[in-house]
Amino acid sequence: MKVLAVASEAYPLVKTGGLADVVGALPAALAPHGVQTTTLLPGFPAVLKATSGPAIHSWRDLLGGGVARLLSGEIAGHPLLVLDAPGFFARDGGLYGDQSGEDWSDNWRRFAALSRAAAEIARGGVKKLRFDVLHAHDWQAALAPAYLRYAAAPIKTVLTIHNIAFQGRFGPEIFSELGLPDDAWSIDGVEYYGGVGYLKAGLRAADAITTVSPTYAREILQPDYGMGLEGLIADRVARVSGIVNGIDPAVWRPDHDPALVSRYTSKTLARRAANKRAVEREFDLAPGEGPIFTVISRLTWQKGMDVLADCVDDLVTMGGRLALLGSGDADLEQAFTAARERHPGKVGVRIGYNEPLSHLLQGGANAILIPSRFEPCGLTQLYGLAYGCVPVVARTGGLADTIIDANIAALGAQVASGIQFDGVTRDSLVHALTRTCALYADQPTWRAMQRCGMKADFSWGKSGAAYAALYRGLIGE
Fold first, then answer.
1. Of 61, 117, 179, 239, which has fewest CB within 10 angstroms of its CB?
2. 15: annotated binding-site residue?
3. Is the per-residue pLDDT at 99 higher than 90?
């Protein structure tokens, strides 16, 4: 079976978040199940380095962006297609915004072009390329199923929602530029509250819809989580399923990780101490034996970072320390920077993102804080489990699906792997921090929780099989 996966980013070529990790890992996860995945990415400068040979197809003027070429290459040993459209993707700045952090004003055109190219490839418009299923990821690729729908193409389509809060909503004036038929401008098409909704269009057109955890698939049926799309999700609920994300054990493996000062296994947890000392040095934390809490996250309201910022003083009072790596809202960046100034040696903050440093934090910190108000799946808690960095999480989405709370029954059965709490409020988070510090003080219990998490299997094996079964079910229809 041949699948064309379409996304705006994929590890290890380009990454801004968990989407890239998932798109990068799926080809290897699907291969054992008889699925060959070809990934189509935008021609960002870093992606073009992975291509070779002449163009295999070209467009004279792709959605007003000028000449575009289709190049081929490899990503982690799997087939790669790259949309080389310099007018859209050859620019300084980020994938989605300029150097000041503002979204590119033509994002609607850039990712419509990616979707349009994907649809043409999927329907057989490029010689020698044939696919059975098109799999689009998030709003940046969500118009691809819509283009195929209005072209009456027989290929089956899947759309995965990684975060329904990001929808790709634009004004009505762009509709005439998208190359869609007039009847696509309807509530059954791309029209969404008087404008154009990319994710909405894909949700209406796709043959199957997946989210990245079973709990999130249920949550987005509710107004608090559906972000205005809960009615459409409910209408298509028979086509919705949740498949939890996996992690790549070749990348996240504490006994072979080059980013760690000291490598270890669940049987040699004492070796983590050297990594803890390295975290202290990196974040200017005073040496100590109390717990180090880490945050590796976007600093946003969704992630509950405003509540955590209000609890930092409590965390320090309990004897904990904080090592934070992330960036996001300016007010939150300032709040954590101010906390560092209030508590020198107790709070360390690194604004930005650094992949090797994120590995060191998982391998050296004692607990990872994830107080998200909603979390479709989450990957950092899975990395924490693999590295014996005990997750402290809000009971929502994929966090609820992957962490077993250290309640009395779970501790007694020796299956607890983390700490869960309900409701992202100051009181609930302080209570969770208090529980965590108490558990950490009981080192035999804490080590048992670490080993339980490290024993859990969150590799892509089961998830890859679930996606392969989904594809085959669609083709069987």
1. 61
2. yes
3. no
